[in-house]
Amino acid sequence: MKLLRHVAAIVTLIVLATMVADATDPGSLQDFCVATNGPAGVFVNGRFCKDPNLAKAKDFFLSGLDIVRNTNNPVGSTVTPANVAQIPGLNTLGISIVRVDYAPNGGLNPPHTHPRATEILVVLEGTLSVGFVTSNPNNTLITKVLKKGDVFVFPVSLIHFQQNIGKTRAVAIAALSSQNPGVITIANAVFNSKPPISSDVLTKAFQVDKSLVQYLQSRSWWINN
Amino acid sequence: MKLLRHVAAIVTLIVLATMVADATDPGSLQDFCVATNGPAGVFVNGRFCKDPNLAKAKDFFLSGLDIVRNTNNPVGSTVTPANVAQIPGLNTLGISIVRVDYAPNGGLNPPHTHPRATEILVVLEGTLSVGFVTSNPNNTLITKVLKKGDVFVFPVSLIHFQQNIGKTRAVAIAALSSQNPGVITIANAVFNSKPPISSDVLTKAFQVDKSLVQYLQSRSWWINN
Amino acid sequence: MKLLRHVAAIVTLIVLATMVADATDPGSLQDFCVATNGPAGVFVNGRFCKDPNLAKAKDFFLSGLDIVRNTNNPVGSTVTPANVAQIPGLNTLGISIVRVDYAPNGGLNPPHTHPRATEILVVLEGTLSVGFVTSNPNNTLITKVLKKGDVFVFPVSLIHFQQNIGKTRAVAIAALSSQNPGVITIANAVFNSKPPISSDVLTKAFQVDKSLVQYLQSRSWWINN
Amino acid sequence: MKLLRHVAAIVTLIVLATMVADATDPGSLQDFCVATNGPAGVFVNGRFCKDPNLAKAKDFFLSGLDIVRNTNNPVGSTVTPANVAQIPGLNTLGISIVRVDYAPNGGLNPPHTHPRATEILVVLEGTLSVGFVTSNPNNTLITKVLKKGDVFVFPVSLIHFQQNIGKTRAVAIAALSSQNPGVITIANAVFNSKPPISSDVLTKAFQVDKSLVQYLQSRSWWINN
Amino acid sequence: MKLLRHVAAIVTLIVLATMVADATDPGSLQDFCVATNGPAGVFVNGRFCKDPNLAKAKDFFLSGLDIVRNTNNPVGSTVTPANVAQIPGLNTLGISIVRVDYAPNGGLNPPHTHPRATEILVVLEGTLSVGFVTSNPNNTLITKVLKKGDVFVFPVSLIHFQQNIGKTRAVAIAALSSQNPGVITIANAVFNSKPPISSDVLTKAFQVDKSLVQYLQSRSWWINN
Amino acid sequence: MKLLRHVAAIVTLIVLATMVADATDPGSLQDFCVATNGPAGVFVNGRFCKDPNLAKAKDFFLSGLDIVRNTNNPVGSTVTPANVAQIPGLNTLGISIVRVDYAPNGGLNPPHTHPRATEILVVLEGTLSVGFVTSNPNNTLITKVLKKGDVFVFPVSLIHFQQNIGKTRAVAIAALSSQNPGVITIANAVFNSKPPISSDVLTKAFQVDKSLVQYLQSRSWWINN
């Protein structure tokens, strides 16, 4: 019996120890719910919360969004997120931000969607050509050239992009209406999924022949966000 | 004064007459809100409602979802919607359905997203290869072959498709979790927007050269939903 | 100590093993949240999620909705659900479907409500008389006869029914705007709750005498959904 | 032309004059949205708002909830609502209250549901037997006797009732989680809709013969809320 | 092996035993979700649920809201809550109530906000002067004197108060549109936080000198709700 | 009759002309709903929408967020908003941003709440001392010193502030989880409402004497946001 009691105590410790990291929600039901993991292997829609009495200022804090990022990659841009994965205090609060660095002469944040967020972007440096495309049947491209201090809105789930059309680097801060907005980069999802989408699907979808689809699938993609 | 009273009466009639068709909402605040137009040129998020005391059975009704559709088009599929545009009683109620017909030997409902809806599909006839791709960074393709009576789920905003891999026509009924789910066909939004997305953006996004992008943009697209 | 380490390992296995089945949510905060159980005896509003990296196509799949059901029961109908209980991938996604089979000559899906869902129904076979009743004070019956290919909408929480008025069997597919819509069959909830509602309540509510209430309570009810 | 200008002015007045009364919403997007009518014949999901700068204290006010109501009616109860129809300031705010008076010796608030609200009730006077029934398949009756100062909760959309089991009158205040909760009195909706539900439906639903259904339909119903 | 089985059984008991107290949600996804604790140290946004099959009438019940409270404290009022902390059945259902007792001659429920709820109040006894202040830039005070039977609405998140201006005690019942509405008493949050807000902030915010801020911070505050 | 037709035409023009400016909503039911006014004097919860086919890039655009603002005012800060009032395309999309300029040596964004938004702030320049206070009963101050590139979160509805503690000016960009977040500056709402809150309320709330309350009320307040 004594052994069993020891075992029980250890089990309690294990259970507590395994509870260190993962759960958000669609609206806060309390002042805040700082994200943390639940028991190992247990997940909820969003993230579990830290004991609210243990919340600290650092749970609501992140540094380094002023650091210029390396954009030496195929698309010429780098996205630095500040969402619930980086700032656990954002859990359940429905907002996050990102810093985007764009290489000079064409650095591109390629066409993508955020399945759970509208984006509002402010240019800190440089000149961007930005746009989004409306849904069927119109597929209207709404586009604009932005300079320092300009603000633009990309409505939730619509395909959008930004490209640096200046000769110097560009930087933007963008806010997103979710603590976990998600990103679907069109080129990656369509031509570089794992496993690949059948070339029968893609040849008919893009009205091209199979060799071209295979060429598109063979390009090496870069996930910048 | 008498003339003016007549005018007033006529004006009231005109105002009423112009109120014949356009407005939904994120959750019903009453038994139902049958969609109708508001005053000419006035729009709300969703649609205006018909006087609830004038609601009729036909406002909640549509016929013809049993009719086999012509799929003689480039992608080999036709989507027949039954959403708030066809059934005004769906307004504010958060659901709709579609019938999809697929041509034999490859008829395709090409890669697309619904910005405001999850889809659940049941096969009535034929054999479909279906799939959806998860968001970054994994871009996992979740795929399955479906036969008559099989059901599959496409989570909200993810890129998905269905292709008839049988030698006979296929038919499915799919339900969507919005009265106005929206459709973004990837090929159309990316390569056939009006005006077109700059080829500078697309060459870098797909890591191909400009002539290939122009070729992709020159293909004639078919909006089947 | 070595024994205890073994015990600890086993405990971890047990904890993981017991996590195989139970938790949804009002809107997805991630691509999807495939339902699974949490630790034994632990529940959340909705269901816990499977590790998203372990999601498989079968989590989004169900077969057999083409199979004709036996309707040899008192009400002459059978409802075959495809909700989060059958398709764990529906968790948090706000939609589900059902197949309903109706016996010839009066097979009835009796008056009921869905506390969390609007229903949209399409007739695959046969002829149905359907209806719903608006709330107080009007209690208007909105009713329609439906044939193959006809679609009808039953707004959330309103009492509704379908009856086969043809001489052959009837079949419908209906979609519901919740992954867990719930069903309250009026006759069962009012006259066959466990324990029964006091006959004092029912005699006054229905303005009849106690023997009639007792007769109504003595009828054997059939839960077909 | 001068006449026309007069007409135009009058028309403007008419349009303004007809805007005096009808529109709520699922969450306030501003401090408040005091309900008012929109243009004649124009409706939205919920109600239009008064110009916020014209809001007055009386828009948020109602008097008389202390007045004892007459309960001399077939069910022996009277519900006095204080929702958006009585207090326009409640529009978009998601809450309302009612006063319920119960006659001595059985005064009944008969089995009903609120399609859009949970109810929490506090007894001011008397002794009530209350209950609600869970959904299929269990249909469990959760029931309790309440005295002065007792509080009870009736979850959204579930069938519930209260009966005065004391020899003196009873009074309760109940709050509902909607500015327009709606009421479906089961007896009225099932046996006294306009037009009536087909007796074929009701005989099969309640497993009784047609004459009994007709008897139930012939009882005169009383809508007390 | 037998020992290990015993250990496993005990572990299960421990896990169950530690699950006794804490989790709500933004909308019920089932009939109800009676609040309970999850595993020790594990929290979700809101509260975990009790096994729904174990729900009892007492989970939806509270007594004693008729008891007159002692208001012998600095502000002269006492708030008695009936929210998810007192009635676990309120979890996920979006509503709660409070009783407020006010001392004669000025008993005050001091200026405060509910971050997650609109309040609707009915006066049971006495005479209250109540008010709320709109947001910037107007900061309009909407105020009214209430007598027995009067009802008033305080919109979500706005600063509001009630004061007994009669010579006898006053009592009110108020309903709130959340199971966990939260309270921020302005005086306490601004002048008595732990640790205190820097006097540099407060001197500039209130345009007064530091000694006055320190005097305000030195007053002993009373949290009555 | 001809005259009347002219009148009708003019009336239509008038109605159209008066529809130029005012209505948002809690979630977009379409790609976007660019804010505009409805008919004169008619309001909805949020704003009316422009005809979606007339949406232009400028509806989603604002310039000038790079311009340094004058902070020569009593609190030493200036808030420059970019919400639905400045960018009509933000309507229904649940997000907005602000630029805040802080004077050197103590420039303060004084204690305030946003009734409908969480805020996430990134420092572009300078050094800020920031904080928020949790709700009752703890009233814990969560505080942090932020430098360039640092990010901090202020949860929805909690009282918060930022003060420039450096010797040079400071600048921040902050995002808010609403297109119309609202601001309640505590000092203004409590001590400078129109009309003023009764000094009886304030003397008891702050536990000070009437002359001190009158002094606090006599200070001239500055609304900087």
Automatic annotation (TrEMBL), chains A, B, C, D, E, F:
Disulfide bond positions: 33-49
Signal peptide segment: 1-23
Domain Cupin type-1: 63-214
Binding, oxalate: 109, 114, 119
Keywords, in A-Z order: Apoplast, Disulfide bond, Manganese, Metal-binding, Secreted, Signal
Gene Ontology terms for molecular function: manganese ion binding
GO annotation, cellular component aspect: apoplast
SMART domains given in the database record: Cupin_1
Binding site for Mn(2+): 112, 114, 119, 160
Entry keyword annotation includes Transferase: no
Location(s) in or outside the cell: Secreted, Extracellular space, Apoplast
InterPro entries for the chain: Cupin_1 (IPR006045), Germin (IPR001929), Germin_Mn-BS (IPR019780), RmlC-like_jellyroll (IPR014710), RmlC_Cupin_sf (IPR011051)
Main location: secreted
One Pfam family of this chain: Cupin_1
Family: Belongs to the germin family.
Name assigned to this protein: Germin-like protein
